[in-house]
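Histidine phosphatase family protein
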Amino acid sequence: MSKTTIYLIRHAEAEGNFIRRFHGITDSDVTEKGKLQAQKLAERLKNVHFDVIYSSPLKRAFYTAQQIAKGRGIEIIIRADLVEINGGDWEDRCWDELPILYPKEYELWEKRPHEHCMPNGESMYELYLRAVSAFEDIVKTNSGKCVCIVTHGTLIRALLTYIKGYEFERLNEILWQDNTAINIIEYKDSRCNLLVEGDWSHLGEELSTIAYQDWWQQFLKERGIREQNINIIERRENYE
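Structure:
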């Protein structure tokens, strides 16, 4: 069976990322920093041949996909099943409000996210099933090709449990990724090989969204990660 290569990419910074409000299906615009991030991402990928580019329908993902697609003559294929988790009552709420308004649900989100369900929204397991179904369909449709998928942080986190061969209960072992982070997967003989996980080194410190946000520092501290600015979770040399 021929090898299929998938670049799984998080969108550029959007307003919700900057102002720290929960934007799942809320369709916020890309920020000025996000536009610079997308430009850096496109420059990083300019020598990578893509046969097809898929995107979530939300503006932050589609804009990012457009920057990658420039000059390639490739139509971007929109897939509704690549959209971010439906946050239900959490949508457009300030992150600082969530543990106060929804203490039980927020504790699950933080400590046992595989059990979490958004109030009047989507559960993490529903998101996982949707993400895996989309991924498998895209791989099946594009056997032997190089594919770009632009989507969202929570969806990527859930999908990586499948790609890494984890039980979904291990979701909390998957680290969050910065905007425009790159994951590269080789699919062959019905197996996924994760070559690169969470690489946002193209941003540098000055364009990172999460590097200096308090929640990220706390996230690293809770997991015993000492580095102040993690920009590559896993990387194998000469992958491009």
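Confidence is low (pLDDT under 50) at residues 228-240.
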